[in-house]
Structure formats: C-alpha cells, structure tokens
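Dear support,

We are seeing what looks like truncated structure output for some complexes. This example has three components. We would appreciate it if you could run it in full and send us the complete token output so we can diff it against ours.
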Amino acid sequence: MLRLLGIGVRGLEPRASWPPSRHSTKLSYTPLARGIILHPMVISTSGSAAKHAQSRSGPTNSERPSRSATAALLAWFRASRRPLPWRTAWRDPYRVLVSEVMLQQTQVAAAVPYYLRWVERFPTLEALAAADEAEALALWSGLGYYGRARRLHAAARAVVASGSPGLPADLAGLRALPGIGPYTAGAVMALAHNQRAPAIDGNVIRVLSRVDALEEGGKAAGLRSVEAAWLRLAPRRAMRHYAEALMELGATVCSPTGPDCGRCPLKVVCLAGIRGNATAYPVPSKRPAVTAVAHACALVRGDDAVLLVRQTEAGLWQGMLEMPRAEVQAAEAPQDAAVRALLAVTGLRGDLIRAWPTVRHSVTRYRVTLHPFEFSLPDRWRASDALEAQWVRVSSLASAPLPAAQRRALVSAFGSAARGANAG
DNA sequence: AATCCGGGGAG
DNA sequence: CTCCCAGGATT
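Here is the complete output from our reference environment:
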C-alpha cells in the first residue's frame, strides 16, 4: 500500500516542479496526515489526480513534502531549541570545533561545564596551541576519551605551525587535521560556515534512518543513504539551523527508545513514524560481549602528596596522570599486581598499608575493576629516581589530568580535595 | 570491517 | 545491578 502511494519512491517528481518559493503545502503536516495516508480512499486517487492528492494527503519522500517538512523542522527548532552555550548568533569555527569534539560520545549536559571552562582558558586556537598538552588534558579530566583532547590540541598546533590565520574553511582541510573526521568536518562547515555539508552524527543517523526506513543506517553502506536523505531535506540557505535542528530533534524528540512522534515536525515524511515502528530503525548492530578485567594500582603518600605517573604508552589513558597501575593477570592476586606496578616505577617493593575500595568503570566492551592498594616506600626513595613518576600535591589533584576512575579512587583516600574542578 | 578509546544516563 | 549510547584512529 505504501508503494502505491509513492512513499519511499524517491525522484518520483522532479525537483524543478516544486519551486522553493511556494509553501502552499503546509496542510501536508497536519496531525490528520497519518490517518489520511493509511485510508484506502487515498489509493483510489492515484493516477492523473495523484499529484493533487499528494499535496493534500502529504506523505511522500519526494521533493515537495520535503520542503514543507524542512520548514516545519526549522520552525520547530526555532521554538524548541535548548539554549546551549555554544549556540550563539555568530559561530566561531574554533568554538564550533571545541563543542563538537566534546559532544562526540558525550551528552550535552556532561559537556556544558567542560565547554565553559575550556573556552575561558583557551578562548582561541592560538591560546590552545600555546598551552601544554597536559593542561589541555587536565581541563578534559573526567570527560573521557582523552584522545579527543590530545588530538584537538595537536590540531591547534598544526594550524598555528602552518601559519594559517585560523582553521581551514573547507572539508578537506579540516579532515586533514587530527581528530577531525567526516562528522566533525561537516559540523564545522555547516554550523560555522553555513555550508551544505552533511553533519551526520548518531542522532542524525537515527532520525533519517527512521524518515526513510533505512535499516542499515549505521553501517558504511547505510551512511550514504543517510547522507542522501540529509541533502534531500536540506534547505537552500539555513544550513546552520537545519544541521543543528536534525541533531536537536534526535536528542530531544526522536530518541532511541521513546520517540515522541506526535510532536515531531518530520512526522508527515517519516516512513517509520507513519508505520508506527520508529524504534525499529536503525537496526542496532550486535554489540560485542562484555569482558571483565581487573587492574590494580599503588597509592603512595608523600608529604601531603601522592605518587603519580604520566601514562606514556598508547592506549588507555595516554598522556594522563595516574597511580602506578597494572592489569591483574590470570590467577594473580590484585595485590600482587599492585606490587608489580609499583616495582616497575620505583624499582622497590613497597610495604602494604591497606586496600582501598575498588572502583568500577566501563571501557567500551570491557568492564574494569580497579583495585587500589596503599603502600609505603622507604624514606630514602625520591620521585626523581624514576623519570616518569612525580609527587603531586593533594591540593593540585583538582586540576590534574586524572582519568575519572583514578580520581574516584583518590577521592576515597584523600577526600573531596581530590575531586575534579570540572564536574562532580 | 572490526576494534579500541571512558564515561554517564535510563530503567 | 543491566542495558544502551557514540566519532575517530588504527589495523
């Protein structure tokens, strides 16, 4: 039946037949539309009167209803958008980049305080490039995926080193910078430069997969279909608002498990919504099994300080400060792993003082349990004996580049003095 | 195409 | 507790 109505058949009507200046199709997104489309009577109107019938009954994913749906989307965004600190009248490409990188794998509420602190400390690309990586990581501490901060810092340095006055204003130039992939490059082009550049994040994949009933939305092949949908629905000029509206819609209305289709501005063109099975799209990829792993770390007190090590190896927590840590091997006691970690850094076997409560956190498909053990070291030992180790004053922990799990362990031992300045 | 990078929110 | 979510780099 849906095929009879032309739904989902793209290119059914030529773009030229629907001048964008005409907006007489507002009826097509009335609340009645969904009921009308499913009524058998509509089918009987196909044929020579089909065009007329569609303009009244609405739903089709060919060009004309897209225009009105886009207009509805933009109107909805004007009325419903959340006031967020990066949503200012004029968009600085650098600030767009900062906010978009922070919003990767991170929800808005978590990113806001970090964004405010970041742009206060690093108001420009030049300010960021002039800072140490450690300071950038410290401001990111607690936000997770610290590689984002390292790459953002590296991108700032790359731009400044190139002698350019600012970020590239083209997709290819942006893509060449570390940490900027297809999504972030598109977001900068659309949000800061108002260009017709698809900015397709997880929210947009979900929204447009539902609009076109695309099952493979998240896959490489499906991504091209999502991109085509993005371009098809795009307005002529208001690219900034459009790009952001799609993401906002996914974040607030077209949610993963409980979409509020009744209030959705795209409901007249959304195939999944019309069918009433929006949550069936996109088909989620099967998630890998979770593996439980255990790590142990050594907590050593100095003079109102704690022994920390900069993680130099690629992988988990690169560049961050943490207590000496080792993965607990099979059949190994966590305490022995902590001894091993301390030995690797100091060359000494500490004396065990006590165990601190374990900390649990998740790393993609791993569920990590961190076992902190407190040790004492001989008085003659100094941190300078080990290049990677350093004493960090307790009063400095708040502004130290600590990963969240390590910070939680330190908070249990040192109290709120160890709590981060960014959040919590 | 699969895997790895940390967190947090919802239920 | 469990389940779910998500860009970019690397291989």
